[in-house]
Design goal:
- The chain is an alpha/beta fold.
- 25% of the residues lie in helices and 17% in strands.
- The strands form four sheets. The protein has a six-stranded antiparallel beta sheet with strand order 4-11-12-13-10-16.
- Strand 7 and strand 8 form a beta hairpin.
- The termini are close together.
- The mean pLDDT is 96.
Length: 530
């Protein structure tokens, strides 16, 4: 490492994407410093926080929410101006939000990457599925993904596995729960294709992590560390000689000659000012904090697309009681879903969708519902037992198209404890999604009929899904995108963005694995140049 720089590469953000990228760079022999606004919290402390919290349905609650490093739920941190209240559950600590994700690790389909060409809507990726496939493999092996190698994940009921794979999943899938078996059997007999959810919960010892023991506590925290979280690779970064600076909130990227970034400036919780220099810089914050940093730094925005095109898998849901005991709440919080409408020509008219079978222990929502009906005493106990055994919870994700008016901006009137602007979000639900929601409701009616169900909560108002995409999107033209196919900012040759925010077409599957795969690809490119 030259004494001219603090490190070859400075990475801003220690979540799963940033830490995987840093780890790959260290394996290439590069020096790396990660800065993180939050602290490194041990797992036991998070588990204890959850046990003592009365707000069990708030998955941010067990985690630090500091004035200088707020979670997305901190009152006043996000101001909404659109017709939808956009409040994703994002965290700020070493390891990032994957501390409380459900660990679903889907690949995109080849068609998902050319939706404009095929269906006339949205945007195409500037790379193909074939370009990213080897990096999906590396990401899956980094995370220890358990998945089925025999299913057609498109939901089109092909007689062969799809999408194409060059290498099997690292570990086999977990056994099907009774809940999943029964719903799969009954819905499957009526033409619905239920597909296993690949997930970063290994079924055997993997890279120092124990196999999943079915605690059903993936959200807000895996108590035994079986489920992958970003701290796994943050620890690997430390073990390979990388440095992680906690309590370091970036507030400015400094530009130099030739459009290069020459320094990142950050503040500690005490207001102390620091800066770091590097040959290359990577912003690896989430899909809201990444564009916010670029905008307050006045960088990377010659296209005026930074912060625009915000996409989530905005969805709807349904809860009902089936006509037989299914015993949900055993094993992972979700094991599979209905994928008939993941891909097809209909995408030219309305959003694709994924119906997930949520498998969280239902006692809390069941009890809340019964108390609202005035049921108490021995009858309350009886009804809890009866309904909890038969509870079915459907959570639907809908495909969202990039819209420049759906955006995040730094607040012009409000600042956090460090004097850094908070954020304003404008997010409207468009007709493309509304039309799909009506199709989803027709599926719901069939699910209830097939399962002999009684609807408890027709939860079909639009909901957050915590999947942030599009705000620093990738493209093949500097005039209408923020980064090129490498993840490199068009405006700054030594600035890369490693975030799900680079995803230009959101499809219907969880974006983290794709974000990590793209970041590993960027790491290889950076390593060749540094």
């Amino acid at each position: 490492m030259s004494t001219q720089y603090d490190a070859d590469v400075i990475v801003i953000g220690s979540g799963a994407i940033g830490s995987n990228l840093a780890y790959e760079l260290l394996k290439h022999g590069k020096s790396v410093i990660i800065i993180e606004s939050g602290k490194w919290i041990p797992r036991w402390k998070i588990v204890e926080n959850f046990r003592s919290s009365p707000r069990k349905n708030n998955y941010n609650d067990p985690y630090p929410d500091q004035p200088w490093a707020p979670t997305s739920y901190r009152p006043g941190y996000i101001e909404n101006t659109g017709n939808f209240q956009f409040y994703p559950g994002m965290l700020r600590l070493v390891g990032g939000t994957t501390w409380h994700w459900a660990a679903f690790t889907w690949r995109l389909l080849p068609n998902d990457m050319k939706i404009k060409t095929l269906y006339g809507v949205g945007r195409d990726w500037p790379i193909s599925y074939e370009d990213i496939e080897p990096y999906y493999v590396r990401a899956e092996y980094n995370l220890g993904v358990a998945g089925s190698d025999i299913e057609d994940q498109s939901g089109q009921n092909r007689n062969q596995p799809f999408p194409p794979r060059s290498k099997p999943y690292p570990v086999p899938p977990e056994a099907e729960t009774y809940y999943y078996q029964r719903i799969k059997a009954r819905l499957g007999a009526n033409g619905y294709h239920l597909i296993h959810e690949p997930n970063a919960r290994p079924t055997q010892y993997w890279d120092g992590r124990p196999p999943c023991s079915g605690n059903n506590n993936c959200m807000p925290v895996c108590p035994i560390g079986a489920m992958y979280s970003g701290d796994v690779h943050a620890r690997k970064v430390k073990n390979l000689g990388g440095e992680i600076i906690e309590d370091a909130t970036a507030y400015k990227l400094e530009k130099g000659e030739g459009g290069k970034i020459v320094a990142v400036h950050y503040r500690s919780s005490k207001g102390e000012e620091h800066q770091l220099t590097g040959r290359y810089f990577v912003v690896a914050c989430n899909g809201l904090e990444t564009p916010k940093l670029l905008l307050i730094s006045d960088v990377a925005n010659s296209s005026d697309q930074v912060g625009r095109n915000l996409m989530d898998h905005t969805g709807i849901g349904l809860q009902f009681i089936a006509d037989e005991p299914l015993w949900p709440g055993r094993g992972p919080v979700e094991q599979g879903g209905v994928f008939n409408r993941r891909d097809g020509d209909f995408r030219s008219q309305h959003a694709a969708m994924k119906h997930s079978l949520t498998n969280i222990v239902p006692n809390r929502p069941v009890t809340k519902y019964l108390l609202s009906k005035g049921i108490v005493g021995p009858e309350l106990d009886r009804q809890i037992r009866y309904m909890s055994a038969r509870w079915v919870d459907i959570s639907t994700m809908l495909e969202v198209l990039p819209n420049p008016t759906n955006r995040i901006q730094p607040s012009s009137t409000r600042k956090d404890a460090l004097g850094i602007p908070t954020m304003t979000i404008h997010y409207d639900i468009e007709d493309y999604i509304r039309r799909a929601a009506e199709v989803a409701k027709s599926d719901y009616a069939q699910f209830v009929k097939i399962m002999g169900g009684t609807v408890i909560e027709n939860n079909t108002g639009f909901q957050n899904r915590d999947h942030l995409m599009g705000t620093v999107l990738m493209g093949d033209n500097a005039k209408n995108s923020v980064v090129n196919h490498e993840g490199r900012c068009w405006d700054h040759p030594n600035l890369f963005l490693a975030s799900t925010g680079v995803i230009p077409a959101c499809n219907v599957v969880n974006p983290t694995l794709t974000g990590i795969a793209v970041a590993i690809r960027s790491a290889d490119i950076i390593a060749r140049e540094v």
